[in-house]
Amino acid sequence: MLQTLEGVQNGPRLSVTTPLEEVEAAAAATDVLVLEFDAFRDGRGFSLAAVLRERGYAGRLIAAGKVLPDQARYLRRSGFDAVELAPGADTAAWARMDQAFSGSYQPAVDPAPTIWQRRRAASNDRDLQALADRLNRETEGKAASDILKAALDPALGLRIGTISSFGAESAALLHIVAETDPNVPVVFLETGQHFLQTLSYRTQLTKALGLTDVRLVTPDANEKATLDARDDLWKTDADACCDLRKVRPLARATVGFNALITGRKRYQAATRAALKPFEVLDGVLRINPLADWDADAVEAWLEAHDLPRHPLVEQGYRSIGCWPCTRAVEDDEEARAGRWSGMDKVECGIHLGKRQVAA
């Protein structure tokens, strides 16, 4: 547990803005080091503590300055031993927030289980994998609607939700979901950086299909204030931005599900070439009814059922994510070539197994 200390503590004091090499030099000469936060939104103090611990510093680390009780757990998990408080500060609030969470998103200096480890422990991966293998055999060659109906069989007892970006091809999957059971929850990751056209399309499509349980999931306000206060993290670290705005929110929003429906397709990217209708990722059954569809099949379905189109499609956007990391594509490019263009990145992370969220 993070110790709370009243009053100014003895020992060298360095601002969290101090370069790492200077912090390391100071740490090498002392058993107690105080790192002072100039603003509660500044995440550099957490990184400095974590790096010092990774490199073997065994001394006492104390956080000081502008830190909040909400950050108690983050401080401890980054490697801090204590926090320096002004006289009369609410120590009970610090103790309460330090113990407020039973899981975490990444391994750190404490033994707290990650949310992925907790989820895998709560389910039986072997049983889920056996179920996925059986359903893949039983639905081989069957239509997407039949694949979905097999997954929604009450006898399986699955707690199922749907993940949708309300993007270029989303109407096809959501139409099949709505035709099968319009009450299946649909999780939409409201990253705060979607195209306005996507938000309008979400409203239009939800109404047109009669979806009854569309859930808007946003990034954690405290995490965002710490990691991306200026909304420009995508410029320097697209992976961290996706973690903050997609991976972490999805983890929180889907804890109650043990099966998730997605609209992924093999043709979309090389990373999806071996996609099966049923798979197990992070202790959750993933259901991909459209795995073997191509762009022509999607277009035929949209046309046959007169479904609304995303307004950006006619402008050349064939895969649509957040506006900073999405561009229109040429006719001879893959559908997802416009996502994170120019970066060594093809997935946001929500569909990758054994995910860990970067600090």
UniProtKB/TrEMBL annotation:
Keywords: Cytoplasm, Iron, Iron-sulfur, Metal-binding, Oxidoreductase. It is found in: Cytoplasm. InterPro entries: PAPS/APS_Rdtase (IPR004511), PAPS_reduct_dom (IPR002500), Rossmann-like_a/b/a_fold (IPR014729), UCP030820 (IPR008318). [4Fe-4S] cluster binds at C241, C242, C322, C325. The gene is cysH. One of its GO terms (cellular component) is cytoplasm. The keyword Iron applies. This is Adenosine 5'-phosphosulfate reductase. It is an enzyme of class 1 (oxidoreductase). The active site is at C348. It comes from the Bacteria.
